[in-house]
Amino acid sequence: MITELIVNKAHCSGCGACYSSCPAEAIAMQPDEKGFAYPSVDDSKCISCGLCVKICESIGNKQITTQKAYAAFAKDDEIRKNSSSGGVFPLLAEKVLNKGGAVFGAAFNKDFGVEHICVENEEHLNLLRGSKYVQSDLRDTFKEAKSRLKKGQPVLFSGVPCQTAGLKAYLRKEYDNLYLVELVCHGTPSPAVWEKYVELMSKKGEPKRISFRMKDSSWRRFATLFLYKNNVAYLCEHRYDPFMKGFLSNLYLRPSCYFCRLKHNNRAGDITLGDFWGAERYVPEIDDDKGLSLVFVNTERGERLLNSILDKTTYKNLDEDVNALASMLNHSVELNPKSEKFYRDFFADQIQLIPIIEKYTKPNIKARCKSAIRTALDKLGLLDIARKIMKR
Fold first, then answer.
1. For 119-165, how does the pLDDT look when each residue is reduced to its tens digit (9 = 90+)?
2. pTM score > 0.85 for this model?
3. Cβ distance 286 to 292 under 8 Å?
């Protein structure tokens, strides 16, 4: 039974592949106290077929090695400006839409929670653009994607690696008309923390727009935006915004993020997209601080899709070790030792969320030094060797 796999929550990413695949509809995805969704089994409906366990255990077992890597950005300045990095995703999505296809991705709902939706025209594609640093509710998008694929409609599904891998496991077969675009992922923060943060920030006014990745002044200095209906705006760089400080400090990530099964060569997507941090060292000739995408091509299908839009980009082939270009492809985030203390305080008094985050994200010189050393070793390709030595 699927519940046996999640006695330890580190095993469950919440992808919902088990829920979508259950022939008896005996599984529901229920949030825990931190807002993370986990499968709940109705034993009275369960027929003990074992399909949910089989699908869950298959996630992350098939290795796909990245074939090529590119630095790229959209030539259309408007597309690039309104994208988190270089604007490659909307170009890929537009290509599929122009074939009569459908595109699935994460969008804000009316309460600024995050859920996966399907769009079939460029007018609504804007809803899927921009980073959402909250785990999205996949709802029944796996089932909808399968229905469209079986009818022969091209489908592009974008999400974090565990979501794209979950869809692939649920489908249980290859579809030539499916394009999986996965995102380089730091981890997914608590929906309960995000919901409370939005509630507290809404005391300034009713939000009409929220963006995690405003880059008006500089691509490297991202800012969080709350734009209110009274035209008052909150704009704060990530290093100062409380929610982002907690997120980037790994203070309230999903337990499975600390033990991610989709690292190294465990790529589920045909294409992997991320921000090209360090572009000033590798491709200074095309780095203008307006946003640059790091694009990994993992399959021939992904290569065909990318090649079809390269003429709309400024790009450069990368000859470097592709795994060294994005450390989050190789290693899970480290558990913040203050995490449980944070949750203890958060559950005791959620109204004090912001002071609690500030309490547990105060600068730690020792931790910063360790982080700098890890970063330097990672860039030199020595991090894994150093970890093995430390374990001896």
1. 999 999 999 998 999 999 999 999 999 999 999 999 999 999 999 99
2. yes
3. yes
